[in-house]
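[retry 2/3] Glycerophosphoryl diester phosphodiesterase membrane domain-containing protein: previous attempt timed out, resubmitting with same input.
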Amino acid sequence: MTLYAVDAIDDAVEATRSLLWPFDAGRWLRLMVVVFFVGGAGGSAPSQLGGSASTGTGSQPGSFPQLPAPETVLPSGGELLVIGVVLGAVAAVVIGLLFVGSVMEFVFVESLRREAVSIRRYWRDRWRAGVRLFGFRLVLGVVTLTLVAAALAPALLPALSGDASVAVGVLLLAVPVLVGLAAVSGLVGGLTTNFVVPVMLVEGGSLLSAWRRFWPVLTGQWKQYAAYVALAFVIRIATGVVSGVAVVFGVIVAAVPFGITGIVGVALLSVATPVGAALIAVSVLLFVLAVAAVALLVSVPIRTYLRYYALFVLGDTDAGLDLIAERRRAVRE
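[retry 2/3] Glycerophosphoryl diester phosphodiesterase membrane domain-containing protein: success.
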């Protein structure tokens, strides 16, 4: 049996090369913007563990004297307002990035489909589909976090009551459940992004209708998609290592000029404090921007390759869902 995921490895390389080379600065810059948002923004919900103080009935000879419980200081109304505003701002930024990233998924696939990158045009045409993907991701995230909280609750409750040994034991039992939840959530999200989004572009319907269209393909050729998931995992590890090495090299290169200017700024602090402080701030800012630019530059071919790889597999399993039929023929002929 031919494994489409194996055949698509080299095909995706050729398709990526055809899109990105010869080098076009405008195309690369637009793809860097798209990749920045497609990369996604993750967040975690912090959990707070507390302990309860035990009280005695009285002091006994030879026992330690009972210390008074520390006074609990509740935040004032103004502090609560500030905390609420900060949390609201963080939530707004996270939700905004999630929405923009959802629309950019369609901009990205449309760019690969047409082999022409146009953010404004594709955004105007596909933002409604992006809203549907945004809603799906939001629901998936809420459901995942709720299940995670339910799995951790049996461990958190003993910890809050002060029984640390029970809490650790229950937490160890919850680890396989958490790993399973992460795997299922990641698999559903990955299949939606890599395959259901292209189906939405082909069919033009809702996300649920796209899932209904894709589901028979997925279950009917599950071996092909199992091979894709396994190989894509290995490819992501390999490209992650390559990307990390390239970014570290970029950091070293950028550290030389900006490190020199930063040292000059430190030397000027004792002579001209404002000038030295400004020079240090500018050096740090430019260094961070340079590192971010290198990371995005490296991510463009990697993200393009991975998305082309999924599109080749999708088209091989169902010709009616092939978004890149012309590129497929050009590569394979």
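[retry 2/3] Glycerophosphoryl diester phosphodiesterase membrane domain-containing protein: Residues 40-67 have pLDDT under 50 and may be disordered.
[retry 2/3] clearing retry counter.
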